[in-house]
Amino acid sequence: MLCELKVFLPSKTPVVGCEITPNVILTRPPGSSKAPPPTFRFEWYREVGERVTIFCCVHHSEIATFQCMCCVMLKVPVKESYYCSKRCFSDTWAKHQARHRRAAETLSKLTDNSWLSTSSWFGYENRDLVDAMETVAEREGRSWIKVGSSKTYVPSADDFGYILRLESIATDNTKGNPLAPTNIILTYPVISAADPHPRCLIEFIPQEGPSNLNVELQTSSDETFNVLSYNVLAQLYASNISYCDSWAVMWEYRRHNLLREIIEYQADILCLQEVQSDHFENFFEPELVKCGYSVLYRSKRNKVYIGSGHVIDGCATFFHRGRFKEIKRYELEYANVASSVVSTLNIEQKDVAELHLAKDNVALVVILEKINTDSDTLHPIICVANTHIHAQPKQADVKLWQVATLVTGLEKIAKSNIPVIICGDLNSLPGSAPHNLLVMGKVDSNHQDMTEDPYGIFQHLVFKHSLHLVKLLFPFQGDHKLL
Fold first, then answer.
1. Distance CA 12, CA 217 (A)
2. Is residue 297, in this structure, part of any structural domain at all?
3. d(C-alpha 135, C-alpha 64), whole Å
4. Which of 15, 175, 295, 334 has the most C-beta neighbours closer than 10 Å?
5. Does 174 reside within a domain?
């Protein structure tokens, strides 16, 4: 009995320049004996439409008759792999072979694919090059041009507007026999993402009302630094976003936009939330280290399997190593504090209350010292807190408790005359109890959120603080089309 081969794409709409890596699952029949891992083969094709005309890379006015698949494997630009005739190919073989060699040398620095060959092309005079390097394949009455033979494919400008076809084959490692029928996926036409809109700056005017800070009294220097707080949306939470096209939430598409935007802000301190663990290790950390940042990361504990491995999100703080250096860091797992909070409850409520409070959220707090400061009036040490508060709308008590827990710890740091900056995603609207606690320094006992206390923990907590905080992000009121 054959196995079942399932192949999934992150989106059925490919985007020019954004790599496509399928998720592959091979399911063996029930009761089958244990077998060695299979071998997978992948073939990518682009449909030939009426408008598709491929020209020779040497004689640009001549239509190509075949494609060099070694160029495809070596990731040579697609346009350089097409030739109009065998004579054309043989006449330019010396230059073509040198192109293979350069491409192989480039790949060898990036991969361990030692099997890639740059040797001479033996006996091509005696072979039908059109057969050996077929440009066009016929499938179900439609014509397709082979464009790739690796698991990952990056659509090029040549693919724009055309459908891609992925053929996936699973074979055993002993005899090379197929283990399952060939899996075939047809995509939607390849699109080209729009250019990013220019940054639109809008002046925010602070609303009048009660506050916990006199800004004029606290300002002590004209020296400034920039801080950015950004929830980058972990990919493991991105599958249920119904109001956005699937291609637009693909990590392969979003990561380049995120990095470009973050770099454009030129912030001295970056506080990112929902940073997926593998994205931090493979993307954010190496890319931002190149840009001069030092890196801190605290992930949640409960990892989730997503097909390619176990991952989880967390908070990441980056600071420009030319302006700051780390003095000390603190990591807060709210779940670890829950047991001490419920210790005052009766036995019947302790377990269920602790389970209710023990959400897998974290905070990352770092003490930074400014480097080479010439100012005698600005304190050279600052505290930056980065957190992601519980998101469940119906559990306002958990949100309030987490914010209160964070503020209690920050108060101890502030007593050493260290300025405090709090960044994060509070998952709380202005006017809510968590928001009021931060901005106002207290929560009124008659606040609506104070009535949502199913386990009676509020009576054992103090919802006020002495930190002089000012809100630096205000609700936007105006034409949303300006954004």
1. 56
2. yes
3. 8
4. 334
5. yes
Q: Contact at 8 Å (CB) between 63 and 55?
A: yes
* One-letter amino acid of 388: H
CA dihedral over 321, 324, 325, 331, signed as positive or negative: negative
What whole-number distance in Å separates Cα of residue 412 and Cα of residue 456? Answer: 26
The boundaries of the domain holding residue 96 are 4-186
Low-confidence ranges of the chain (pLDDT < 50): 51-52, 113-134, 213-220, 480-483
Same domain, 50 and 148: yes
- In this prediction, residue 461 carries a pLDDT of 84
H/E stretch holding 104:
helix 93-110
Please check whether residues 384 and 308 belong to one and the same domain.
yes
Partners of residue 23 on adjacent β-strands:
8
Q: What CATH number does residue 239 fall under?
A: 3.60.10.10
Q: How far apart are CA 233 and CA 244, in angstroms?
A: 13
Q: Are residues 152 and 272 in the same domain?
A: no
Give the total number of structural domains in the chain.
Answer: 2
Q: What is the pLDDT of residue 261?
A: 93
Closest among 225, 252, 234, 212 to 17, alpha carbons compared: 252
Q: What whole-number distance in Å separates Cα of residue 390 and Cα of residue 393?
A: 9
Residue 75: per-residue pLDDT:
74
The answer to whether residue 200 is domain-embedded is: no
Q: What is the pLDDT of residue 482?
A: 40
